[in-house]
Amino acid sequence: RSTLFPYTTLFRSRVLKPGAPLLVLEFSKPQDPLLESAYKVFQTLWPPVGKFFVGDAQPYQYLVDSIRVHPDQKALKQMFEDAGFEETQYHNLVGGVAAIHRGVKPLAAH
User: Fold this and answer.
1) Each residue of 15-25: pLDDT tens digit?
2) Contact between 97 and 38 (Cβ < 8 Å)
C-alpha cells in the first residue's frame, strides 16, 4: 500500500489507454464523526489481533498508520485532476471508511 502513489505515472503510461477509466479502491476518511470515532477504536484492535493470529503486529500497525496519513476523498480527487484525469469522482463506501475513486484518461493529450 503506497500512500503517495504517483497517479501521473499511470496517466502518462501506455498501460492506461486514452478514454479508459482508472478506478482506485482505497481506505479513506469516514464522513460521520461518530463513525470516525468508532472506526478509530476498531483500528486499535488490528495490531494486537494481527500479533495473536500471525505473530506480528507491525504490518497491521503500518496499515493503520498509512490509512491515517492517506489523503481524504477530496484531496485524492484533486490528485487525479492534477494528474490530468477527467470526469473525476469518488463514491464513499461504508460511510467513507473506503472510497472508490474514478478518473478518465482524456482522448487527446493536453
Assistant:
1) 788 999 999 99
2) no
Q: pTM of the full predicted structure? A: 0.82
Determine the Cα–Cα distance for residues 62 and 70; give it in Å rounded to an integer: 12
Beta-sheet strands, E only, within the chain: 21-27, 86-93, 98-104
Identify the residue whose cell numbers are 503506497: 2
Q: How far apart are alpha carbons 97 and 25 in whole angstroms?
A: 11
Residue 1's pLDDT is 46
Rounded to an integer, what distance in angstroms lies between the CA atom of residue 68 and that of residue 39?
A: 11
d(CA 110, CA 81): 12
Average pLDDT over residues 95-108: 93
